[in-house]
Amino acid sequence: MTTKIYSVTAREILDSRGNPTVEATVILENGYRGTSAVAAGASKGSHEAVELRDGDKKRYMGSGVLKAVENVNGPINKRIRGTDALNQQGIDTALIELDGTPNKSKLGANSVLATSMAVAVAAAASQRQPLYRYLNSLFTSFHQTKLDRIPTPTFNMINGGLHGAGNLNFQEFHIVPASNKPFHEGLEMGVSVYYSIKQILQYRNAVHSVGDEGGFAPNLFTNMDALEVLMDAIRNTHYRFGVDIYLGLDLAATQFLGENGYLIKDKPIAYKPAEFIDYLVEIHNKFHLLILEDPLAEDDWDGWKKLTSRIGSDVLIVGDDLLATNPERLKKAIEMKACTAILAKPNQIGSLSEFMNVAAIAKTHDIKIITSHRSGETTDTFVADLAVAIQSEYVKFGAPVRGERVAKYNRLLAIETEMIAAK
Question: Could you confirm whether 416 is annotated as catalytic?
């Protein structure tokens, strides 16, 4: 029996927000199989690959994915059945050609990616390898990379923007353990600060319910209040700010850019782009940020370049919506020196090989990588193995709570144990 693909099937399942998503299963002729599910974002950049939805308002308010499921069960299954699952790049190329559009709008990035990942899971099983080691062997053809560490977690502790209750403009407020800490220690730090934040919010009689990614969604007055809460929470632990732990922000700035500029509740009138850059520099000077993600609108290339030139040597300026895990946009950013890091999300580009190509470009040009989940997640832990496989500097999987987030952190704990035992 061979490693050729016997069948590819898919079904509609639910993500962590109760929205439908695609889960694909690949069965090989030798009996090995792999299953993987695709995540979905709420805050989506306009340059992302297309996530195919049914639009039938009678089902799941139009967000069903039966069309994408049928694309897997029909044309995708027909196209790659009989192909060797160990030929990941060949399969991904076939899927891209089958779709035939620049943004996967025909088949849907959700159907293509679910298939692409499931092929890799089945292939890894057939080789009797842990998924992260098999994925690393695939990545080696893009960029020679040795497995020697677990990425540092960056925890989304307070949810705002489209991930929260609507009262904070900035989308995510993070704490980041120092990168010299072993992963299990960093995870413990995240949990400790998380419960410290909860105690502070309770003391202030603030709302301490959680948002989409497990971080708190409190009723604070300004975005700066949220940063002060994080600082207070760190002070209430034995960890040292600036030594053991740092702060990060994901502004998702495109979401609050209006005709008159960037409008946030910290100021009654909108900031002009140049003023907003000054404001971001002030925030960094005050809170010594380690990570600053999507600080400006997704197509304000000149603004990104100016901000990076001012503080890019001190803080990671991270492109998410700016780059959309797209190789051409990443190359432009490198040429313009518009950012120093990329938030890499598999479903933004739509296939495993394309994702690895982007990661290889980043590594070649010393662009740091933060491998990321999406706000609408499943309990699939593929992205955790992928982050280790490409040796990204950081992972962004949400708060250290909620099953779909914890599953990924627990997977990293398991991989850490395996890697330590192998040394």
Answer: no
Catalytic site includes residue 345: yes
Does 250 carry a binding-site annotation? Answer: yes
Contact 153, 409 (CB under 8 A): yes
- The residue-averaged pLDDT of 314-325 equals 97
Residues 27, 162, single domain; the answer is no
Angle value at C-alpha 53, between 47 and 55, nearest 5 degrees = 120
Any binding-site annotation on 374?
yes
**Residue 167: predicted pLDDT:** 75
Do the annotations mark residue 79 as ligand-binding?
no
User: How far from 164 is each of 170, 194, 217, 234, 291, CA to CA, in Å?
Assistant: 10, 16, 5, 22, 20
9/119 same-domain check: yes
As a whole number of angstroms, the distance between CA 226 and CA 173 comes to 7
Token pair of 368 as six digits: 């740091």
Higher-scoring residue by pLDDT: 255, 420 = 255
* Whole-number Å distance between alpha carbons of 149 and 419: 8
Whether residue 327 sits in one domain with residue 249? yes
Average per-residue pLDDT in the chain? 95
Residue 263: give the domain boundaries: 152-422
Choose the catalytic residue: 44, 104, 345, 408: 345
Place of tokens 């779709």: 99
Query: Residue 40: what pLDDT?
Result: 87
The response to whether 171 counts as a known ligand-binding position is yes
pLDDT tens for 374-420 read 989 999 999 999 999 999 999 999 999 999 999 999 999 999 999 98
Whether 231 and 329 map to the same domain: the answer is yes
pLDDT tens sequence across 338-369: 999 999 999 999 999 999 999 999 999 999 99
Known binder of ligand: residue 44?
A: no
Given 23, 48, 51, 213, which residue is catalytic? 213
The response to whether 345 counts as a known ligand-binding position is: yes
Q: Where are the alpha helices (DSSP H) in 42-182?
A: 66-71, 77-80, 88-99, 109-126, 131-139
- Note the pLDDT of residue 165: 60
Are 164 and 211 spatial neighbours (Cβ–Cβ below 8 Å)?
yes
Residue 373 main-chain phi, psi, to 5 deg? -75, -170
Better-predicted residue by pLDDT, 46 or 21: 21
**Number of domains composing the chain:** 2
Q: What is the CATH number of the domain that holds 78?
A: 3.30.390.10
